[in-house]
Design brief:
With 411 residues, the chain is an alpha+beta fold. The chain is built from 16 helices and eight strands. It has three domains: 82 residues, Integrase, DNA-binding domain (Double Stranded RNA Binding Domain, 2-Layer Sandwich); 95 residues, DNA polymerase, domain 1 (Orthogonal Bundle); 198 residues, hpI Integrase, Chain A. The N and C termini lie far apart (102 Å). Keywords: DNA integration, DNA recombination, DNA-binding.
């Protein structure tokens, strides 16, 4: 015969195997059962849509009678609102099973990307693309099948191919972050990528242009501008002879396209490529001679004001096509910001015969020139948008010849 008692610690302790079950006298449907082996489990009985359900709440002593009753009250409240809590539990279990079998590609698209978009929507797509580009052979692997040894072999291959150690570290750390989030969300129990230790990188080595290289780059920009303008004139002559529509003449413009003003602005402001390409005319004050990097476009999430020196000011004045100060400074297609500058930048470096130099290194060049000119490091930090002085020391170190000149002052 089923007992009717208030389910408490005392009544649970007194429950015998032969009792089988005890119904709570305070909460209808709440009861406890004892198995032949003495295992006690709490349940909630309810009816919904003509169906009778016995919902498992938990086992003793993992939860106490009081905790079990409180949870039963919550579930009864959900049932009262038409929710079949048993079906909800089953669906959650099904989704957990599906998630645990998830492959990297589907996890990135369906779970990780939506979460990243809530954190920083401007970098979310970039992070996903980086993982996919770096680890294409892992996209169809289940998350639980991605192991440290696999990544170690990948690192060895990339190092042999000439990929920089810092780039390898960046890719691996991005993947680690994605898998660690999967652990937090109980999609996988664990991952062992923390065994993959980052390569040690000499962060004191910062690439900047020598005086000879800077002159070569500037000369290459001028030669490129002349060449493209001549090519446009010759092309229009060809079109005119055949009665084709003519393209806009470039000889009336200061620059044939965006590349020269973009490079000059990078060299004279130290802005990141993303900050430059997302810069809008409304954030440029040519009269007061400064521009504003808004917080949403900054890597640090903090806005900053950058004074415009004479060369940067002239470059922007000569480039400005829209006097209404609308839109992006460097427009792409359909009024969207410019995104891809790899090909023209690569061709420019070849023309200038400059090796091992990225567009981002123009930022290092800016900082190094400031330090070598005697600008204090805190001012450099503010102009660069670094969160602390440690980053400034890393990116804006002095060239060896300037260090030598400094110690020679007291020689």
């Amino acid at each position: 015969m089923t007992k009717r008692l208030k389910i408490t610690n005392s009544s649970i302790k007194a429950l015998q195997v032969e009792d089988g079950r005890v119904n709570d006298t305070e909460l209808s449907g709440f009861h406890a059962r004892i198995s032949p082996k003495g295992r006690i489990t709490y349940y909630l009985f309810y009816r919904i849509k003509g169906k009778q359900v016995n919902f498992k709440i938990g086992t003793h002593p993992e939860i106490t009678p009081t905790q079990a009753r409180d949870l039963a009250k919550i579930k009864l409240g959900e049932v009262a609102h038409g929710i079949d809590v048993q079906e909800v539990k089953k669906e959650a279990k099904r989704q957990t099973i599906i998630a645990k079998q998830a492959k990297l590609n589907s996890y990135l698209e369906q779970r990780y990307l939506p979460w990243l978009e809530t954190r920083n929507p401007k970098t979310s797509d970039k992070i996903i693309k980086e993982i996919k580009r770096a680890f294409p052979n892992y996209l169809e692997k289940q998350l639980s099948q991605i192991h440290a040894w696999d990544i170690e072999k990948w690192r060895i291959e990339k190092k042999k191919s000439g990929m920089s150690l810092s780039t390898i570290n960046g890719y691996v750390n991005t993947l680690k972050g994605a898998l660690s989030r999967a652990v937090e969300w109980n999609i996988i129990e664990s991952h062992d990528l923390n065994k993959v230790k980052s390569f040690k990188v000499d962060n004191a080595v910062v690439r900047y242009l020598t005086d000879v290289e800077e002159k070569a780059l500037r000369d290459a920009l001028k030669e490129r501008d002349k060449r493209i303008k001549v090519e446009r004139e010759n092309g229009n002559l060809f079109r005119q002879q055949r009665h084709y529509p003519l393209l806009p003449e470039l000889r009336n413009f200061n620059y044939c396209d965006y590349l020269e003003p973009l490079v000059l602005l990078a060299m004279n402001t130290g802005m990141r490529r993303g900050e430059l390409l997302s810069l809008e005319w409304m954030n440029v004050d040519l009269e007061q001679k400064y521009l504003t990097v808004i917080a949403g476009n900054s890597k640090s999430g903090k806005g900053r004001h950058i004074p415009l020196n004479n060369e940067a000011l002239v470059a922007l004045n000569n480039w400005q096509f829209d006097t209404t100060n609308q839109g992006y400074v460097f427009n792409g297609a359909e009024g969207k910001p410019l995104t891809d500058i790899k090909k023209p930048w690569s061709n420019l470096l070849k023309q200038a015969e400059i090796n091992d130099f990225r567009f981002h290194d123009l930022r290092h060049h800016f900082a190094s020139k400031l330090v070598m000119a005697g600008v204090d490091l805190n001012t450099v930090r503010e102009l660069m948008g670094h969160s602390d002085l440690k980053m400034t020391l890393r990116y804006a170190h002095l060239a060896p010849e300037h260090k030598a000149a400094a110690v020679n002052l007291i020689g």
